[in-house]
Amino acid sequence: MSILLYLLSFSAGIGVLITFIIGLANYFSSADYKKWWRISLGLFAAASVLTLLASIFDSDSGLNTGLAFLWVYVSLLMFAYILVYIIKRVKKDSTKGYKKRIATTFIIVLALIFTIGATAGDPENAEREINEATATVEEETKEQTTEETTANDEKEPEAERAALDAKRAEIEERKKLEEEKSVEQKQKEDAQKESEQEEAEKKEAELKKKKEEKPAEEKSTEEKSAEEKKNKGESKTEEESAEEPEEEKTYEPGSEDRIPVTVASFTDGDTTRFYYNGNDEPFRYLLIDTPETSHPRVGEQPFGKEASARTKELLSNADVIEVEFDVGARQDHYQRNLAYVYADGQMVNEILVREGLAQVNYVEPPNIRHLERLQTAQALAKQEQIGIWSLPHPFDSEIYQEGSSQESPDSDSEENNSSTRSSEGTEHFQNCTELREVYPDGVASDHPAYQSKMDRDKDDYACE
């Protein structure tokens, strides 16, 4: 008989574990979890009673075995309460009554420990302690069920009160809004009336002033003419005095000062005309070369228009434009100023190179102050293969020249000769390499050896 009771108690204990886990899963999924926990408590009470009955009918092992099983069940119940308490605290849910349950189960665990020790020495008092333990377990289950029912009953009136409060708040807000609208309408009507009155008063005042000013204007015409003459003379003196310090400003060739300028016109990506020292002068960007846009020989090169548009965009959107000269020559042989150009503090030369719209070129020491900076930008553009570095061939290659073709070996003897003179006195060179052997610095457009196909940047100077 005792074995059957122990098996039933063990199966009830398994049912307690299963129903507790189902209730915990429903709690996380916001389903009805309390029903399963009530079933779990009922099974727990049944398992406890069955354990005590089995210990009574078991004459061999005695009461200590049953009390030991009961101690295990109560201990698991205490840990279950602790787990639920922690989960509810994390989810910021109500933990009402759980501290009390944990304390009572803890006391029961201690009582069972002491009773087990006592029954081991005094077997006569075992039955009394068993009856007391069963009574406490039943009382605890009854208290828990009553607390859960009261909590459910309290939640319903609280929800109704909250709904009523929300409705009252909405009604009050509507009343406030209606009152505010009526006040705003009154204020608008008052403001319109006041504005109409002010406009009428202003019109009357203007009519009076016009009547009074007519004779006064006739008298003051002579005075105004005299004052204008005086002001013209003063403005001329001020302009002359203002021009004098500007003419005195000078910049040393080796200084890193940035000189403010304004745009006069745009030429291409690496050439711009600025108003400098009161004059419209061309500026060639130092150490860079951008593709051509409309060269008479090579035509339009890849990314030429993009480079011109980017330069125009940077300078047009800039509030402050400055130029910086290097330590060497400040002009090339075309009388163009050689400088680094800045738009709002950013070097335009570097931006064009970094975005793959220009390459580092025309490196002529000692004008190499920012060479390393530009070479670094070019290395990054090459690495990213952007702009001109995305092309399969260099942008200035003959592949991209309009109408380019290889000359046949059977062309005129004048073109095959390195240098010849015609009857009119002009000189002919096959390419810039041959021309530089005679004229190392290149030739201008009025020189007999000038050819438009050698003027790559269309600046009226070939093979520079």
Looking at this protein, list some descriptive labels.
5-stranded mixed β-barrel; alpha+beta; 10 helices; 464 residues; OB fold (Dihydrolipoamide Acetyltransferase, E2P); 12 strands
Descriptive overview:
There is one protein chain. The chain has 464 residues and is of the alpha+beta class. Among the domains are: 2-152; 259-380, OB fold (Dihydrolipoamide Acetyltransferase, E2P), CATH 2.40.50.90; 416-462, no CATH class. 58% of the residues lie in helices and 11% in strands. The protein has ten helices and twelve strands. The chain has helices at residues 2-28, 34-57, 63-90, 98-121, 126-248, 304-316, 348-354, 371-384, 413-416, 432-438, and strands at 259-268, 271-276, 279-285, 288-289, 321-324, 337-343, 346-347, 359-360, 419-421, 427-429, 443-444, 461-462. The strands form four sheets. Strands 1-2-3-6-5 form a five-stranded mixed barrel. The protein is elongated and about 135 Å long. The relative contact order is 0.05. Residues 403-425 have low confidence and may be disordered.
How are the secondary structure elements laid out?
Layout: H1 2-28, H2 34-57, H3 63-90, H4 98-121, H5 126-248, E1 259-268, E2 271-276, E3 279-285, E4 288-289, H6 304-316, E5 321-324, E6 337-343, E7 346-347, H7 348-354, E8 359-360, H8 371-384, H9 413-416, E9 419-421, E10 427-429, H10 432-438, E11 443-444, E12 461-462
Parallel strand pairs: 3-6
Antiparallel strand pairs: 1-2, 1-5, 2-3, 4-8, 5-6, 6-7, 9-10, 11-12
Helix pairs in contact: 1-2, 2-3, 2-5, 3-4, 4-5, 7-8
